[in-house]
Design a protein that fits this description.
heterodimer, A: about 120 residues, hypothetical protein PF0899 fold, 3-stranded antiparallel sheet, about 30% strand, elongated, B: about 220 residues, alpha/beta, Rossmann fold, 7-stranded parallel sheet, 8 helices, about 20% strand, globular
């Protein structure tokens, strides 16, 4: 339900990058969304497309890298993909594990047209 | 041309949240962010909590809703400063709303700040409000599988309050399974069980607040 607001934040950051570089055209924005982030990738794409439609930014692509939850075992350091619900380390059985990936809500990169050479 | 950015999407919210956390630290304010589905009992829990605290405890509440001042009116009866944040449609509170709401309050007059988020188990989990801990509420009239359905917020919360336990004889809620599900999503989450009607378990909730506050600011305990 808050994906549109998230899409606005992403778009604002992309526009800022373009403005910093003399207004070169934006091509693509890459984001990382973890399954624990509370953001639904489909709703985010939908909101993003709606925001750029019929604007000079129409066609700007959103590349979503969806990250599953990964835990690290505090006892044996094994890292494992944790299909939820997860319980303990598949190797040593320890229940003491920490989440090391899966809650991302990051802008990874922004792609822009090459600036004209003068 | 690809530019590596590597920033949080909610960078601006994060910046404001860090500012708030620093201000809380500077003024010895301990802040909790209460999150649940609509109707789990956030306001009732705060009502019982405020009733229990003595008038010289420095407690204040910010309460968020999409519309109405009803919750602020309910909570103001206890005599502590309460401010309603009406979001006008937004399904969560963000750090800017908190900064704005606190602008005319003197933080030196606040020891514990409760933020009651908008009733929603999804979106509030994305927004840091500068709080020291998130507390998620779940009531026994909901399903015990809620932690599995909404793992994000249970993952980020330090405490799970299971409310309405006086209704356990009348519903099929499995308390053990609820605890276990919460811990499957977040092995370090603490769980307390309360009834805001019979007051059962409220001491456990207050004791948790006291311990957590001590851990954060080392300040005097709220008189329970």
């Amino acid at each position: 339900m808050h994906e549109l607001g998230i899409a606005v934040s992403i778009l604002d950051r992309a526009k800022l990058e373009s403005a910093r570089r003399g207004g070169v055209r934006l091509l693509k924005v890459g984001v990382r969304i973890g399954e624990l982030s509370g953001v639904d990738p489909d709703a985010l794409s939908f909101g993003f497309e709606a925001l750029v439609k019929d604007t000079p930014l129409e066609g700007l692509a959103l590349d979503i890298d969806f990250r599953k939850r990964v835990q690290r075992c505090s006892a044996c350091q094994r890292e494992f993909a944790a299909d939820m619900p997860f319980s303990s380390c598949p190797d040593c059985g320890s229940a003491a594990t920490v989440c090391i990936s899966g809650d991302e809500l990051d802008i990874a990169y922004i792609e822009l047209e090459e600036p004209e050479c003068v | 041309m690809r530019v590596a950015v590597e920033e949080k999407v909610l960078n601006e919210n994060q910046r404001l949240a860090l500012e708030l956390r620093q201000r809380f630290h500077d003024h010895n304010v301990f802040c909790l962010n209460l999150i649940s589905a609509p109707g789990s009992g956030k306001t009732s829990l705060l009502e019982r909590t405020l009733e229990t605290l003595s008038n010289d405890s420095k407690v204040a509440v910010l309460t968020g809703d999409i519309q109405t001042e009803n919750d602020a009116r309910r909570l103001a009866r206890a005599g502590f400063p309460v401010k309603q944040i009406t979001t006008g449609g937004t399904c969560h509170l963000d750090a800017r709303m908190i900064t704005k709401a606190l602008s005319d309050w003197n933080l030196d007059d606040i020891g514990i700040l409760f933020i009651e988020n908008v009733g929603n188990l999804v979106c509030p989990s994305s927004y840091d409000l500068g709080e020291h801990a998130k507390v998620v509420l779940l009531s026994v009239t909901e399903g015990e599988d809620k932690p599995l359905k909404y793992p994000g917020i249970f993952h980020k919360s330090e405490l799970c309050v299971i409310n309405k336990i006086d209704l356990l004889p009348y519903v099929s809620f499995n308390l053990d399974a609820a605890r276990e599900n919460a811990r499957k999503v977040n092995p370090s989450i603490e769980v307390v069980e309360v009834s805001c009607t019979t007051r059962q378990g409220l001491d456990d909730w207050l004791a948790w607040i006291y311990r957590r506050q001590l851990k954060t600011v080392g300040a005097a305990a709220p008189a329970a």
